[in-house]
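Researcher: Structure for this, please.
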Amino acid sequence: MNSFYIAWNMVKRTLGSKKGWLVFLLIPSLVISAAIGFIGREEGRVTVLVVNEDQGSFGGYVLKEMAARPEYTVKLLDNARELKEAIIENRGQAGFVLPADFSRELLAGGSPFIQTYELNVNEATAVMNVHLDGITGRMVSAAAAVKASSGSADSRSEALANILKQAGKHTLGAETGDLKLAPKPGLTTITGFTLMFLMSLVLSTVSLVIEDRTKMTMARMYTAPVKAAEIAAGNFLGSFVVGSLQIFFVLVITRLVIGYDYGVPFLSQFVVLAAFVLVSLGLASTVAGLIKNPGNASMINSMVVTPTSMLGGCFWPISIMPDYLQKLSNFMPQTWTIQAIEKMAAGASLADVRLPLAILGLMAVVLLAVGSAILQPSENKVRM
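Model: Predicted structure, token format:
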């Protein structure tokens, strides 16, 4: 019962004023949510730059088919030189040039070559090439069927135009579904940023702990007829409630207000992030016990948050790091939190991520135990 009373007092101390709500809850949640909204903003329509040098009419069919796809915004340019400059200046992700003899070679039964341009090979440009090959492949097949029939060049051209016109109606189509075979692109970056910010918020409580120690508030607490375990549990429980509220606000704002789809159930994601907050609390208590000078509290981010985030895969994939750093990353809570989120985004349930959750739980128990022991004031200060 004493632990709950201490926890409630800590929550009131943190969030008991408008300033507390703003500093510890509202502003951090809005900042994290805004950053997630910016980082996780859907790529939306890919800008495809096109130069149509075709002297016939069938090059326009290619442009029409590409523009009809919801993921592309087709922009026409005058010449290949302008297209190359636009690609270099990142005014478009990719582009292609329809040659002057595109229609003529198509009617002749050939396979016209379309020159494509891309500065960086990525998923969007690769998919664009697949779509472009699919469009031209269907046109080549239709042209070959028309050529097999007898008739003049004009009649074959008219027949091919009719075939493409009917094909352009798309009476049959395919529906794209998410099979959840892989996590959503950008989710790892967003999760890493969220973890880094959450750890910074949790470790900010170190300043409160150091303040209590400096003003002898902690020493007076341990002279009260309350068990030391209850005092530590109350402090941790109060901090955990605040951290859980921060997670709740971030998830609600990003999901409902910003509209970002994590691809992970709300409750499952909340549980994993809450486990990470527990580990961060243990780490915060351990660091608070080691810092004696209140002026050194500002060094926590550079000493703890940034190094662990780098090793834990918040900034870049762990797979690109050297072997010894990959082994060291196994001791970082960010590694297992990101792994759990990625697995659930790929279709796993909360029960399927038992191992990462168990490791996070073990880290939390060890660090909380160490933190509880370190945070206790020395015997001579208690007697004072």
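Researcher: Any notable elements?
Model: The first helix runs from residue 2 to 15. The first strand starts at residue 46 and ends at 52.
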